[in-house]
Amino acid sequence: MLPRNVRRFVLAAALALPLGAPRAVAQQYPTQDIHLICGFAAGSGADIIVRFIAEKMKPLAGRAIIVENKPGAGGNIATEYVARAKPDGYTIYITGASALAANMHVLKNPSVDVGKALQIVGTINKQPVMIAVRGDSPIKSMAELTAAMKAKGEKASYALANPTAKVVGAMYKEKAGLQAVEVSYRTGAEYLNDLASGVIDYAIPDNVLAVAQARAGRMRILAVSTAERMQSAPDYPTMTESGYPMDLRGWWAGLVPAGTPKPVVEQLGAWISQIVSSDEGKKFLANIASDPWVSTPDAAQAYFLQQIKQWGEYVRIAKIEPQG
Hints:
This protein is of the alpha/beta class. It folds into two domains: about 30-125 and about 250-315, Bordetella uptake gene, domain 1 (D-Maltodextrin-Binding Protein, domain 2); about 130-225, 3-Layer(aba) Sandwich (D-Maltodextrin-Binding Protein, domain 2), CATH 3.40.190. Helix content is about 45%, strand content about 20%. It has twelve helices and eleven strands. The strands form three sheets. Strands 2-1-3-10-4-11 form a six-stranded mixed β-sheet, with helices on both faces. Strands 7-6-8 form a three-stranded parallel β-sheet, with helices on one face. Strands 5-9 form a two-stranded antiparallel ribbon.
């Protein structure tokens, strides 16, 4: 049996380990490559954001940052992958947290309870969903779009490719009294030809796709889904101004599996905040009609949980029947 003084030393050392462990984790992280998960295909609006974050995170982390595209099921394949990943800080989901919140109500049986399975490490931006028509369309305002779609009745149609757009499209239909048919696509890029050819009358694109297409003359943005005009894109009128009151905005964040050590969460949050608040970060976000947003992990997680509840109300107002 060990002498009493030795036993006391061993016990004291053991009790001290939990207190020292977080600091050790923070000092050691990262010791390997970091993987950023994108829920949509390479070249998509989502992919552009993820790859920008990856490029800017690499020198901060001092490790290779690998982007993995896991498209499918409206982003749910990527969500499931991250939720089941080891909570060690090496698998980070860069995605629209608003879409994750919406999916909890748009889907009848969500495979992941995102509020419990995922932890936000840092926020990236706030961005609108756009309402748009093809670039050469004679329609130049929401009033003209509504009149034209009412005239077409059940033959009118619109395209979308994400849960947030689904809610915006349904709310517009409800408020405008339209009968337009929703047509879902895997990605926004997939409906561009149908929009250009007139197969689809209008679209509810994300800001990245819409701005890029508008600059190329292939799309005309009629309004944004926020209650107030975006700081980064003040020329675009809001749906509220156009007579269809709503305040629906997407917001992007970095998320990790629940249970990731707090020091790692804080380190990742610090890196993302540094990227977002940098001159390059602000310029990049403004270029895709979005406003930078910096928040702490705890505050962002609390907002995320609040948003999950709020999107339930949005889905109810839009009279969307949960799918799947």
